[in-house]
Design brief:
single chain, alpha/beta, Rossmann fold, eight-stranded mixed beta sheet, 10 helices, globular, disordered N terminus
């Protein structure tokens, strides 16, 4: 494997001419390397170089191989610094009873001890989990702002099972809040595309809508580029963003929901961009760049005093 020695000297960094196999088998990611890239669409070429990583994310735009590599190397540094970045939220017994649950987990990006946490749900049309483009980068930004952030690796194949995984993961975070050193007050739920549908469902129905969980609803929900239209009058304040040239999430559908929520008395902050397309992640290189800062400010606005 190629790569350069990182600061701690414990693990080598990866580069764009490294392969998928180099990620899957990287010693920093032992036991979960298969979840770094979206490989659950079936057959993939383990020799494929990371400079072609965008081909693994067909529903996403503006996938920059250099940014992907920087994100992965950030995670390698976290492990080198002695941090645990991946946790199983299902028990071994649960996974034995339903082997598909083997393909789940939580990535953790630590902020300040005692700070609120965010759960980030990447999209991928429920056919893959695009964490490397719209999960890990968001969590890193949240962590840099000193908030704790989790990125959900969920079962693909449909929204119901994905939401069940999200509810189970949320319960796991609450049960282990002391271990994670996170506050369970004012948590936020983030999602992009298919992941935004998941986040919205937890905002509408709580974890109790997808399992036997007695947990509070999120403080706010952040929804990026989704045509999800359902909501309840008890939904939390919601931040919504989309691009006018999105070929998947129609602006008219998004705005219909925004207006309906506002008419129901729900506070909604809506940010519309022009040329970011669908699946723009952090929007770097488009007019959507910086949207996450507005979303974080929206969250902070609704935190308890």
């Amino acid at each position: 494997m190629g790569g350069k020695e990182n600061k701690s000297g414990s693990y080598k960094h990866i580069e764009t001419d490294d392969s998928i196999l180099d990620i899957v088998s990287h010693p920093a990611f032992e036991g979960f390397g298969q979840y770094i890239l979206p490989l659950n669409r079936g057959i993939f070429d383990e020799k494929m170089q990371l400079n072609r990583v965008a081909t693994l994310l067909p529903y996403h735009n503006n996938v920059d191989p250099d940014a992907v590599v920087d994100t992965i190397n950030y995670m390698i540094n976290e492990v080198s610094d002695g941090k645990t970045i991946f946790y199983d939220f299902y028990t071994e017994q649960q996974k034995q009873e339903d082997p598909i649950k083997e393909s789940t987990g939580l990535f953790f990006f630590k902020g300040d001890s005692g700070a609120p946490f965010a759960v980030v749900c990447p999209g991928g049309g429920f056919s893959y989990v695009g964490s490397v483009h719209e999960g890990f980068p968001h969590a890193i930004e949240l962590s840099k702002k000193r908030y704790n952030a989790f990125v959900l690796q969920y079962r693909v194949g449909g929204g119901q099972r994905a939401c069940e995984d999200l509810a189970a993961a949320l319960s796991y975070i609450f049960e282990n809040a002391e271990m994670f050193e996170v506050s369970t007050e004012d948590y936020s739920m983030w999602g992009s595309s298919a992941g935004a549908r998941m986040a919205a469902n937890i905002g509408s129905y709580g974890a109790a809508g997808f399992g036997e969980y007695d947990l509070p609803k999120p403080c706010i929900v952040v929804m990026a580029y989704t045509g999800h239209s359902n909501f309840t009058e008890n939904d939390p304040p919601t931040f919504v963003t989309v691009s006018e040239n999105d070929p998947i999430a129609k602006v008219s559908t998004v705005e219909r929901r925004v207006n309906a929520m506002r008419n129901a008395g729900i506070e909604v902050e809506y940010r519309k961009y022009k040329n970011a397309g669908h699946g723009f992640g952090l929007g770097i290189g488009t007019d959507a760049e910086g949207w996450i800062d507005y979303a974080i400010q929206f969250w902070e606005k609704h935190m308890s005093e």
